[in-house]
């Protein structure tokens, strides 16, 4: 493709609209324009130059800001749809989404579910939208950044008269500038931190050029952020596990491949107390009832020294002891353990008394560990209790006549006991649940009477490893630098030239024209240089 | 201790009065001005900004005394957060005022701040202790930056509104004038809400209901306004009070809906009254206030506020928010409704900037966008808290 040589001698890339150096219009259209479109300084952009192959078409599609805006708006609208009803994640986890939405929200809920909006943010089309924004960001930035760089770098001080005339702020006047006057203007411009270049009587004052890179910097930040977010799906970069751990228990921390173990010494929930806490809170406490002050797991972290020896028993060495609270995770080795949730008062042990029904006399008590019941409990003097069956989460009797259990968790423990006493050396059978005793094979003389229950709390800790966070952090920081750079500074230029006995003055800013006028007008007031007029107003 | 709380309340009250006075001072200032941008601010304007700054300092006083009393920054419930937002709005106004010296901004910004403070005061005002998730330095870092960003973005709405009031042709009925009236009506409806709430609170109205909640369980609710709509399978327990006309399904919070209906109704009444007395649209009624405004300049103020506010909002609403979410909730992003609406706000202003830069959406289009942006912010501030309950929902 041919390069374009301008009359001033500068060779411009194919597709250039305004000469990079002197600013002369190189295309017919540009010559006819009333005001030059200065957004990309009239430089050659790939998307404006080629439109033949498929690659060109795709390139042009994604480099268009119009398409970019559409993508942003579509993402915005789609995101809002996801907040009409709660997402799948936020509905109670013991119900099925299939029925939940219809039951709770009626027909609208059913439609919501059918359209898949109940899990909108993980849907393929939503992720595709975000990905399209990413692609668009890369292409639109590439399309513009290099041409813009060339144009801003090559600009000459003395711009062509037509270029100046087609600036939004422009004026010309017969006359000549006295050197002292020019010096005064230059002083003024310098005090406003303009950089000044001169070439045989022509002047270019410029400041804030770096702000033109703001959008590109912030787009790079966004791209890095999106890449970081994508990396989370790469094996090993991201771990998200939940560890339910009972008081007193020591468990392997999932996701650490057996390297680390955690012991839960104690789990506490603390409420605000009208007596102990500052009295300014009393009114609120009275209005709302109790307010939680603290969730806390007192935890001990262990490392398994034998982790590398296959088949060896874990040899736990204490690493540290910490209190894990909301907002205060325990950190180790790229991992963090967060206080997530809890379950209060899970049954741990049950105490029962072997009692003579008639005399109400106790022959002895058994304390059954609900997680590890023994087969027999010897009470001495010929009294003994055998556990024939244990149903930790008793759920009635099945069709075959056998008691059923819903889960291995002791939510509603029930036992089938054989009670042996001197009177009944062969034993009597009793079925005992928490508030219920059955005698399935005939009336008995003894029974197992419920005496008490021991409970403990379970703490739920989120185990998190996220090696992408630093990438997201860098992306976010670059984005912030970029927006601030582009938003808090402007690129301002002022050209002054003398052409054929006339003084030309033109000015350009990429934004905030009032600010520019207010800055430069006082500097050229009362000089031979005319005040540039706004040709758009 | 409670002395501090008392002081704090008085300071807020004082700032309210100052803003009110300043509004009139600014109003006086624009009356005697001619067109042009380089004019010096007259005495009324100087007085106006002085009183505004004093009011702002009083409100800062409210903020810090309450902080001292509570032991944490007072941004932890709706009352506190909305008042803080109003303070940031006034702060942003002061900054923009010193950049452009436009008294007319005050005439519109201060009444909006006043309405917001009045609205905030309708929520429970007692100092509540922090739940575990809120016990973090990030509470004030995040919340204050978000509110600051939103306050600055709100000034873009103010400037946009002035632009529209000035440029729309109020003598004809058009889509534009109707929408402008919708905005005016919404502001009036907030006043309606405040009036109705205060009236019934003072009269001590209470109506208790037994009803069945959305989990299908029996529950009780006390209405402080006569129930036009009542709860699901509700039964009025307080004898002699107004029986609901319509019963709501379980998933709708009938108490809140009832409040909304009352506010809209009272707003309609007030608005109708204004129209009746003025015999013209509210937009036309306030138009004389803006007759000297340079529209081009107003357009720039609106854009400039977005440029200043967008980075602040990004920092507070997204970046700090993500950092805190990572610490408190173990993940930096979880598609909680409040998070989603912060993202929507951010995307919206990104679209605004692109439209302006590349499609040349200046002037009226840009002004409408500024208005929509503010509506989104308000939606996130109020509706998402009250209607779409998520992790963020206060009280
Ligand atoms: C969420 C996504 C995006 C954000 C937050 C964002 C942010 C920004 C910001 C803050 C600016 C500076 C605006 C100003 O200074 O007034 C900007 C400029 C720009 N953006 Fe984006 N952008 C996003 C997506 C896109 C996409 C998808 C495209 C692709 C077409 C795009 C193309 C541009 C262009 C061409 C500019 C102007 C550059 C210039 O001429 O100086 N942006 N963007």
UniProtKB/TrEMBL annotation, chain A:
<feature type="domain" description="ResB-like">
    <location>
        <begin position="65"/>
        <end position="423"/>
    </location>
</feature>
<feature type="transmembrane region" description="Helical">
    <location>
        <begin position="467"/>
        <end position="489"/>
    </location>
</feature>
<dbReference type="GO" id="GO:0016020">
    <property type="term" value="C:membrane"/>
</dbReference>
<dbReference type="InterPro" id="IPR023494">
    <property type="entry name" value="Cyt_c_bgen_Ccs1/CcsB/ResB"/>
</dbReference>
<dbReference type="Pfam" id="PF05140">
    <property type="entry name" value="ResB"/>
</dbReference>
<protein>
    <submittedName>
        <fullName>Cytochrome C biogenesis protein</fullName>
    </submittedName>
</protein>
<dbReference type="GO" id="GO:0017004">
    <property type="term" value="P:cytochrome complex assembly"/>
</dbReference>
<keyword id="KW-0472">Membrane</keyword>
<keyword id="KW-1133">Transmembrane helix</keyword>
<keyword id="KW-0201">Cytochrome c-type biogenesis</keyword>
<feature type="transmembrane region" description="Helical">
    <location>
        <begin position="124"/>
        <end position="146"/>
    </location>
</feature>
<feature type="domain" description="ResB-like">
    <location>
        <begin position="443"/>
        <end position="520"/>
    </location>
</feature>
<feature type="transmembrane region" description="Helical">
    <location>
        <begin position="213"/>
        <end position="231"/>
    </location>
</feature>
<feature type="transmembrane region" description="Helical">
    <location>
        <begin position="67"/>
        <end position="85"/>
    </location>
</feature>
<dbReference type="InterPro" id="IPR007816">
    <property type="entry name" value="ResB-like_domain"/>
</dbReference>
<keyword id="KW-0812">Transmembrane</keyword>
Automatic annotation (TrEMBL), chain B:
<feature type="transmembrane region" description="Helical">
    <location>
        <begin position="177"/>
        <end position="200"/>
    </location>
</feature>
<dbReference type="GO" id="GO:0017004">
    <property type="term" value="P:cytochrome complex assembly"/>
</dbReference>
<dbReference type="InterPro" id="IPR002541">
    <property type="entry name" value="Cyt_c_assembly"/>
</dbReference>
<dbReference type="InterPro" id="IPR045062">
    <property type="entry name" value="Cyt_c_biogenesis_CcsA/CcmC"/>
</dbReference>
<keyword id="KW-0201">Cytochrome c-type biogenesis</keyword>
<keyword id="KW-0472">Membrane</keyword>
<feature type="transmembrane region" description="Helical">
    <location>
        <begin position="141"/>
        <end position="165"/>
    </location>
</feature>
<keyword id="KW-0812">Transmembrane</keyword>
<feature type="transmembrane region" description="Helical">
    <location>
        <begin position="260"/>
        <end position="278"/>
    </location>
</feature>
<feature type="transmembrane region" description="Helical">
    <location>
        <begin position="12"/>
        <end position="32"/>
    </location>
</feature>
<dbReference type="InterPro" id="IPR017562">
    <property type="entry name" value="Cyt_c_biogenesis_CcsA"/>
</dbReference>
<keyword id="KW-1133">Transmembrane helix</keyword>
<dbReference type="Pfam" id="PF01578">
    <property type="entry name" value="Cytochrom_C_asm"/>
</dbReference>
<feature type="transmembrane region" description="Helical">
    <location>
        <begin position="77"/>
        <end position="97"/>
    </location>
</feature>
<feature type="transmembrane region" description="Helical">
    <location>
        <begin position="340"/>
        <end position="357"/>
    </location>
</feature>
<feature type="transmembrane region" description="Helical">
    <location>
        <begin position="102"/>
        <end position="121"/>
    </location>
</feature>
<feature type="domain" description="Cytochrome c assembly protein">
    <location>
        <begin position="290"/>
        <end position="392"/>
    </location>
</feature>
<dbReference type="GO" id="GO:0005886">
    <property type="term" value="C:plasma membrane"/>
</dbReference>
<protein>
    <submittedName>
        <fullName>C-type cytochrome biogenesis protein CcsB</fullName>
    </submittedName>
</protein>
<feature type="transmembrane region" description="Helical">
    <location>
        <begin position="306"/>
        <end position="328"/>
    </location>
</feature>
<feature type="domain" description="Cytochrome c assembly protein">
    <location>
        <begin position="76"/>
        <end position="199"/>
    </location>
</feature>
<dbReference type="GO" id="GO:0020037">
    <property type="term" value="F:heme binding"/>
</dbReference>
């Amino acid at each position: 493709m041919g390069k374009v040589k301008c009359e001033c001698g500068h060779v411009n890339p194919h597709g250039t609209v305004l000469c990079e150096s002197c600013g002369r219009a190189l295309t017919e259209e540009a010559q006819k324009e009333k005001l030059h479109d200065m957004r990309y300084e009239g430089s050659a952009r790939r998307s404006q130059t080629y439109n033949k192959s498929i690659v060109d078409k795709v390139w042009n599609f994604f480099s268009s800001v119009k398409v970019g805006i559409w993508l942003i708006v579509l993402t915005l609208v789609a995101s809002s749809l996801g907040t009409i009803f709660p997402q799948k994640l936020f509905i109670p986890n013991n119900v099925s989404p299939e029925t939940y939405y219809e039951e709770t929200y009626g027909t609208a809920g059913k439609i919501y579910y059918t359209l898949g909006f109940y899990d909108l943010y993980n849907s393929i089309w939503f992720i595709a939208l975000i990905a399209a924004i990413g692609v668009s960001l890369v292409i639109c930035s590439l399309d513009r950044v290099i041409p813009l760089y060339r144009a801003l770098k090559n600009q000459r001080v003395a711009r062509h008269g037509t270029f100046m005339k087609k600036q939004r702020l422009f004026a010309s006047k017969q006359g000549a500038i006295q050197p002292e006057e020019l010096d005064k203007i230059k002083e003024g411009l310098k005090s406003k931190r303009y950089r000044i270049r001169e070439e045989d009587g022509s002047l270019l004052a410029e400041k804030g050029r770096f702000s033109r890179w703001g959008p590109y910097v912030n787009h790079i930040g966004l791209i890095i952020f999106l890449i970081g977010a994508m990396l989370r799906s790469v094996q090993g970069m991201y771990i998200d596990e939940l560890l339910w751990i009972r008081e007193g228990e020591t468990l392997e921390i999932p996701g650490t491949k057996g390297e680390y173990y955690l012991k839960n010494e104690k789990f506490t929930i603390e409420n605000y107390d009208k007596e102990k806490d500052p009295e300014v809170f009393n009114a609120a406490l009275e209005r709302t009832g109790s307010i939680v002050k603290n969730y806390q797991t007192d935890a001990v972290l262990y490392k398994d020294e034998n982790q590398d020896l296959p088949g060896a028993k874990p040899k736990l060495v204490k690493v540290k002891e910490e209190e894990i609270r909301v907002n205060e995770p325990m950190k180790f080795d790229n991992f963090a353990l967060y206080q997530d949730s809890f379950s209060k008062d899970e049954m741990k042990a049950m105490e029962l008394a072997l009692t003579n029904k008639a005399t109400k006399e106790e022959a002895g008590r058994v304390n059954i560990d609900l997680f590890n019941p023994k087969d027999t409990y010897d009470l001495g003097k010929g009294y003994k209790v055998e556990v024939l069956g244990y149903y930790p989460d008793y759920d009635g009797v099945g069709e075959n006549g056998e008691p059923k259990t819903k889960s291995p968790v002791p939510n509603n423990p029930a036992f089938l006991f054989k009670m042996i006493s001197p009177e009944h050396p062969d034993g009597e059978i009793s079925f005992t649940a928490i508030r219920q005793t059955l005698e399935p094979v005939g009336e008995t003389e003894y029974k197992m009477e419920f005496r008490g229950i021991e409970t403990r709390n379970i703490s739920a800790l989120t185990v998190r490893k996220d090696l992408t966070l630093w990438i997201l952090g860098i992306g976010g920081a670059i984005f912030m630098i970029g927006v601030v750079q582009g938003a808090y500074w402007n690129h301002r230029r002022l050209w002054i030239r003398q052409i054929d006995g006339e003084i030309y003055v033109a000015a350009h800013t990429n934004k905030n024209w009032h600010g520019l006028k207010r800055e430069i007008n006082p500097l050229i007031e009362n000089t031979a240089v005319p005040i540039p007029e706004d040709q758009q107003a | 201790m409670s002395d501090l709380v008392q002081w704090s309340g008085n300071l807020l009250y004082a700032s309210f009065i100052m803003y009110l006075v300043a509004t009139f001072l600014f109003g006086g200032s624009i009356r005697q001005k001619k067109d042009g941008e380089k004019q010096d601010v007259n005495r009324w304007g100087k007085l106006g900004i002085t009183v505004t700054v004093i009011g702002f300092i009083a409100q800062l006083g409210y903020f810090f005394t309450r902080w001292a009393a509570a032991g944490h920054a007072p941004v932890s419930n709706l009352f506190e957060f909305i008042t803080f937002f109003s303070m940031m709005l006034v702060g942003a106004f002061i900054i923009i005022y010193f950049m452009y010296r436009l008294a007319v901004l005050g005439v519109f910004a201060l009444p909006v701040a006043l309405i917001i403070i009045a609205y905030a005061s309708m929520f429970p005002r007692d100092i509540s202790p922090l739940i575990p998730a809120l016990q973090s330095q990030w509470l004030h870092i995040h919340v204050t930056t978000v509110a600051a960003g939103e306050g600055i973005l709100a000034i873009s709405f103010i400037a946009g509104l002035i632009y529209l009031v000035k440029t729309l042709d109020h003598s004809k009925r058009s889509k534009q004038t109707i929408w402008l009236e919708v905005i005016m009506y919404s502001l009036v409806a907030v006043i309606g809400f405040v009036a109705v709430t205060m009236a019934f609170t003072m009269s001590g109205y209470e109506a208790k209901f037994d009803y069945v909640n959305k989990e299908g369980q029996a529950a009780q609710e006390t209405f402080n306004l006569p129930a036009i709509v009542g709860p699901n399978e509700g039964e009025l327990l307080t004898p002699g009070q107004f029986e609901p006309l319509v019963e709501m399904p379980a998933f709708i919070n009938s108490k809140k809906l009832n409040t909304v209906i009352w506010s809209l109704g009272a707003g309609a009444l007030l608005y109708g009254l204004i129209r009746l007395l003025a015999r013209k649209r509210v937009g036309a009624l306030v138009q004389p206030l803006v007759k000297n405004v340079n529209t081009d300049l107003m357009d720039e103020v609106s854009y400039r506020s977005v440029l200043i506010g967008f980075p602040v909002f990004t920092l507070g609403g997204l970046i700090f928010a993500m950092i805190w979410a990572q610490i408190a909730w173990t993940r930096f992003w979880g598609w909680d409704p409040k998070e989603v609406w912060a993202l929507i706000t951010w995307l919206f202003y990104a679209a605004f900037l692109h439209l302006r830069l590349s499609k040349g959406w200046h002037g009226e289009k840009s002004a409408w966008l500024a208005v929509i942006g503010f509506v989104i912010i308000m939606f996130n501030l109020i509706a998402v808290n009250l209607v779409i309950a998520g992790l963020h929902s206060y009280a």
